[in-house]
Amino acid sequence: MWVSVLGVRVSGDHFNLTRYGGLIMEKWPNNRAWLLVLPVFVIVAFSAIIPLMTVINYSVQDIFGPGQSVFVGTEWFGQMLGNERLHDALWRQFLFSGLVLLIEMPLGILIALAMPKKGWGVPASLVTIALPLLIPWNTIGTIWIIFTRPDIGLFGYGMNKLLGIPFDHTATSLDAWITVMLMEVWHWTPLVALLAYAGLRAIPEAYYQAARIDGASAWSTFLYIQLPKMRGVLTIAFLLRFMDSFLIYAEPFVLTGGGPGNATTFLSIYLVKIALLQFDLGPGGAFSLIYFVIVLLFSFIFYQALQRVGKGGTV
């Protein structure tokens, strides 16, 4: 059905803009397909906004019991920002995330470059590489507890008895850090490798043919063809790994419980100790919001920096 409005013919499906009365009109596309995605947006908004509002409510109140609370404003935020243990956990978290990224990103790229490009080895290597990603996070910690035990663990027993190097992640801070780092690298490097491999497979063969004609070395091919073409997927991998490592909880909690002492007490573990073990919901809510802002801020900074590098600029 067509309706004429000010010389413009409007249908129920689209806006058919034609030259009429000196006016040039354009087609108005049908966006009703977005209605199919609307339920997903509603569910995500419902599941995200309500917990966030609950945390905000806790962060500005001093809660004594059910129905008993006093509004304290920003008192808990000031207390958390001046907390030395939070500062220690924050620097410990930055150190951990930085070391993880420095190891996982180059290692994942090297694994992707070494993977076969065709034949039966492709599915076999993809399945093998992806196996650590299929293991539940809390199970990862249990596996590494057994693996690094000095008496029966393959790694722990080998270090202590075969190599003669004393190793016990439950008693020494350095050993605990080494164990947590090895566990994290083993668990999540496959994600970087798979993303890098997908980026490599998306490079047209014509680029490699041109490189061979020009006599480019393997290093030049990687530096000027493969690495620039992988920049998009590597940006995604970098941001995902930063956020995941900065929010890590289950693996180190099961493996070390934040110890020995506070050696592996990262921000998430410290937050759980405040909110659940001490049941300080007000400070815990304030800490949660501070934690959220830190992750959001640094993810935005990293994204902008990587985008500038991707466009040929400088950080």
Question: In a nutshell, what does this entry contain?
Answer:
It contains 13 helices and four strands. The chain is mainly alpha-helical and 315 residues long.
Lay out the secondary structure:
Elements (H helix, E strand, L loop, with lengths): L1 E4 L2 E4 L26 H22 L1 E5 L2 E4 L3 H7 L2 H31 L6 H10 L6 H11 L6 H9 L10 H29 L3 H9 L4 H12 L1 H16 L3 H6 L11 H11 L3 H30 L5
Antiparallel strand pairs: 1-2, 3-4
Description:
A two-stranded antiparallel ribbon has the order 1-2. Mean pLDDT is 84; it is low at 1-26. It is globular and about 75 Å long. The protein has helices at 38-59, 75-81, 84-114, 121-130, 137-147, 154-162, 173-201, 205-213, 218-229, 231-246, 250-255, 267-277, 281-310, and strands at 2-5, 8-11, 61-65, 68-71. Helices cover 64% and strands 5% of the residues.
CATH topology: MetI-like fold
Order of adjacent strands in the largest pleated sheet: 1-2
Number of strands: 4
**Computed structural class:** mainly alpha
What sequence of helices (H) and strands (E) makes up the elements? EEHEEHHHHHHHHHHHH
First-last Cα distance:
56 Å
Tell me what the CATH architecture is: Orthogonal Bundle
Helix content: 55-70%
Question: Biggest β-sheet, characterized?
Answer: 2 strands, antiparallel
C-alpha geometry: globular
According to CATH, the homologous superfamily is MetI-like
The residue ranges in which pLDDT falls below 50 over 5 or more consecutive positions are 1-26
Strand content: 5-15%
Overall pLDDT: 84
